[in-house]
Design brief:
Blueprint lengths: L2 H24 L5 H67 L20
Helix pairs in contact: 1-2
């Protein structure tokens, strides 16, 4: 729960307690409908408390989903990097074939050495 949500929750609790206290104090001294209206009004801040807890739960859920998506993105980035490395390594051999065997990288695994042992 964020600091603002906690502050609102404390205010909701304070208002609900104050309205409940006023309801009890006015019981029998004023018309019944006003006492009942105050009792119903004391329940309104409870809905605010429920709303703040639901928002806090949704924020936590979104944070978890963002973290999971971040991990998936990191995995995808690693896969794309491996694919790019493989394509670069294959490009060396493509240059070799298209340049009539004159341009071949010295570190290529597919390079065949042409010695003068003949």
């Amino acid at each position: 729960m964020s600091r603002g949500s906690r502050t609102l929750t404390v205010l909701y609790v304070a208002v609900a307690l104050w309205l409940s206290f006023c309801t009890v104090r006015t019981w029998g001294a004023v018309p019944a409908w006003t006492t009942l209206a105050m009792a119903v009004a004391a329940l309104a801040p409870v809905m605010g408390i429920v709303r703040e807890t639901v928002i806090a739960d949704e924020r936590r859920a979104v944070a978890v989903l963002r973290e999971r998506e971040g991990r998936r993105a990191a995995w995808r980035d690693a896969a794309v990097a491996a694919l790019a490395r493989a394509e670069v390594e294959a490009a060396c051999c493509e240059r070799w074939w298209t340049s009539c065997a004159t341009e071949h990288d010295p570190g290529c695994a597919h390079r065949t050495s042409w010695g003068s042992t003949a």
